[in-house]
Design goal:
Elements: H1 2-16, E1 27-32, E2 37-43, E3 46-49, H2 52-57, H3 61-69
Antiparallel strand pairs: 1-2, 2-3
Bound molecules: zinc ion.
Length: about 80
Amino acid sequence: MYSSLIGKVQKSQIYAQEKGRVIISDLKATFQGDHDTYELKYEEGSWHCSCKNFVTDRFCSHTMAIEKMMEGMTSGKPA
Ligand SMILES: [Zn+2]
């Protein structure tokens, strides 16, 4: 029982270094910006943000930051 747990912990440590095993398809996140909090969504291969810049430009510092954080874990293209 105890050795089984140790085996799982060891395997999880190996898996955790192999990001390519996981592809995230949909995700919601809360982003704490310098001035406000924003809702981020990852849907159908791209990020969306609730901030004003995203509405006008279709990208913002929040989506750019989370793309970098999640690099290799999402299948998508930049928003
Ligand atoms: Zn934003």
